[in-house]
């Protein structure tokens, strides 16, 4: 059967425009908050910062794009028969796996590289950063491997329907289910939606390791977000109150301002 068209060219244009716009936003954010002494130097961490901001925002903004992409086809049409404009599943895998790589390899390497001894050569600092990152990844790999081996399963309830067996020629006009107690003849046809014809079972299966890794990374990210987000929301009004309490209480002259600025070395 040919795939039913649900193609939406507008979504492709939206994705391209949003991606380019997020690059502009990430670069502007970096330029706005960078220290004046960091201009025209330390290009690698700047690239990491811009890419990390872009990746984070694009991951969030892809949710509504995915929903719109799914609505290209009617809900009555099976997903397998739809021809979507965007391969959402593949893009989700790319986004979340890239998040994992950036979070657990690129950013730690950048931190270890710039925290290395300034007397080291560039090559030695790269080696030092790689060694520290590999050591961290080995420890995390062992931990994740043990967790995946022992608890890397998914369990959920499924409803199974039992059926009897009848001769093939008797199924031509069959429109209902066959009772499990059938002895080869279609008698007392049952309804599969009625209580008593189904059985509840617990299905347990091992998830794919990339999916498991993505889930762990997401859980850790949400926990850190709740921690730092909660601390930030709680401390923000306190910080505002302290700034208000420590505000200047009197106006000083320009000469006094210059004198105090010189004392502070400004």
From TrEMBL:
It is a multi-pass membrane protein. The chain crosses the membrane at residues 6-31, 43-65, 91-114, 126-151, 211-241. It comes from the Eukaryota. InterPro entries: LMBR1-like_membr_prot. The keyword Hydrolase does not apply. Keywords: Membrane, Transmembrane, Transmembrane helix. GO terms for cellular component: membrane. It is found in: Membrane. This is LIMR family protein. It comes from Tetraselmis chuii. The lineage of its organism: Eukaryota, Viridiplantae, Chlorophyta, core chlorophytes, Chlorodendrophyceae.
């Amino acid at each position: 059967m040919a795939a039913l068209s649900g193609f939406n060219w507008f979504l492709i244009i939206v994705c391209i425009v949003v991606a380019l716009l997020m690059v502009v936003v990430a670069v502007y954010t970096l330029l706005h908050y960078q220290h004046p002494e960091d201009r025209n130097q330390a290009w690698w961490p700047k690239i990491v910062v811009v890419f990390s901001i872009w990746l984070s925002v694009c991951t969030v903004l892809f949710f509504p794009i995915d929903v719109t992409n799914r609505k290209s086809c009617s809900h009555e049409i099976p997903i397998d028969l739809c021809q979507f404009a965007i391969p959402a599943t593949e893009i989700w895998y790319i986004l979340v796996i890239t998040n994992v790589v950036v979070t657990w390899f690129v950013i730690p390497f950048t931190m270890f590289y710039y925290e290395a001894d300034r007397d080291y050569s560039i090559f030695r600092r790269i080696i030092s950063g790689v060694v520290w990152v590999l050591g961290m990844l080995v420890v995390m790999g062992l931990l994740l491997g043990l967790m995946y081996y022992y608890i890397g399963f998914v369990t959920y309830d499924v409803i199974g329907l039992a059926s009897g067996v009848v001769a093939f020629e008797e199924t031509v006009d069959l429109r209902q289910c066959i009772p499990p107690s059938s002895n080869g003849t279609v008698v007392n046809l049952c309804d599969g939606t009625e209580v008593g014809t189904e059985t509840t079972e617990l299905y347990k299966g091992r998830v794919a390791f990339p999916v498991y890794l993505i889930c762990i990374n997401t859980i850790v990210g949400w926990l850190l977000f709740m921690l730092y987000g909660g601390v930030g929301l709680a401390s923000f009004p306190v910080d505002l109150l302290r700034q208000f309490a420590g505000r200047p209480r009197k106006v000083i002259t320009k000469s006094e301002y210059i004198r105090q600025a010189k004392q502070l070395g400004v």
